[in-house]
Amino acid sequence: MNEVVSQFEYASGAISRFSNPNHAGSLNSQTDTASAQAGSRDRGASVRFWVQMHNGRIVKMRFQAYGCPHFIAAAQMLCEWAVGRSALELLQWHWQLVQGDLEIPAAKRGKLLLLEDAVRAVAAEIDALC
Amino acid sequence: MHVNNETGVIQDIAAVGAICRERNVLFHVDAAQSAGRLPINVVEMNIDLLSCTAHKIYGPKGIGALFVRRNPLLGLEPLIVGGGHELGLRAGTLATHQIVGFGAAMELAFNERTTDATRIGRLRERLWQGLQVIPTIELNGHASLHVSTILNVAFHGVEGESLLCSLDELILSAGAACSTGSDEASYVLRALGRSDQQAQSSLRFSLGRFTTDHDIDIAIAAVTREVSRLRSLAADVP
Fold it and tell me: Which helix (H) or strand (E) is B219 found in, with range?
């Protein structure tokens, strides 16, 4: 193999979360579980979140994602942040919260808005559980 | 382009040359990927101009060569003027060390051409066969009309940058190395009928004189593992 590619530099926080996304996966559909999706593969990024609620708090959050390493790392970091929070607090999530750790290049930040869309959608689904 | 740099497909240069000659059209061949690897006869192939480069055959970077048919004169105009060097075509002191290095590399490439092609071709086939345990992959290129040094494969359902990033034990490319820095889908693969997404999910493997069986085994294992991981990471997203 003899051609070198380096399209983007990756921060260690991005690489570690992309390589070991321990919130990746899904949750079975139950009465205390909500799920929502945003984006599409055709547009280069798509994500689905599953959340399990208990006493008004998120006790588990899982995601599946198609996208670049920064997008996957941001979905993972969002899950880390969300566990223990309420649906109302979840709605406060915005992409700048991951920028410091992930050092996302400006050209890719638009895709992170899909995560905000998915968060809003899943928060609405949580409301529907109640 | 004698050999496409992304897919490794060999074009029928002799046929193109015959058409050009018949219609009195000058014929320039980009032989960057083929010089030193494939037989080239500029007379029989009706080639008027042919360019090649040293670094593709383990020569020094920064030196290339342009063959210019002598008769009849083509009337080329110099881009760099100011001296009479290189028959008035390019002013400036000749980089003798680069020229000698290029010549030595070409001599080695020519002498080792058959041995290299056989050995690297076997490695390429080993890689391609090994990768076929992965579901829904496709060869980008031609099954038989290709050089031994390039294998381009589409891994459907996997995002290209994530796949590249996952394969940090390999050094490979999602397209042409000269186009890196752009996240646009390869125009070569799109011209073959691949969608933007399929083109971005393709990897070009480049093999060479120093590639070993062990390298190939590492590549097969790593790509198989990471394609599976990334597909599972996106199993239920549309």
Answer: helix B213-233
Report the distance separating Cα A35 and Cα A29, nearest Å. Answer: 8
Give the ipTM. Answer: 0.88
- Give the minimum alpha-carbon distance from B164 to chain A in angstroms, rounded to a whole number: 8
User: Of A1, A6, A64, which is closest to B205 when you measure between CB atoms?
Assistant: A1
Inter-residue contact B205 to B172 (CB < 8 Å) = yes
Choose the closest CB to B233 out of A8, A21, A40: A21
- Residue recorded with tokens 């649906």: A87
Please write the tens of the pLDDT for every residue from B66-122.
999 988 888 888 888 888 888 888 888 889 999 999 999 999 999 999 999 999 999
Specify the DSSP element, H or E, that contains A59: strand A57-66
Enumerate the active-site residues of B.
Answer: 178
C-alpha dist (Å) from residue B235 to A24, A48, A51, A129, B157: 11, 10, 17, 25, 9
- For residue range B105-115, what is the model confidence (pLDDT) as tens digits? 999 999 999 99
**Cα–Cα dist B58/B79, whole Å:** 27
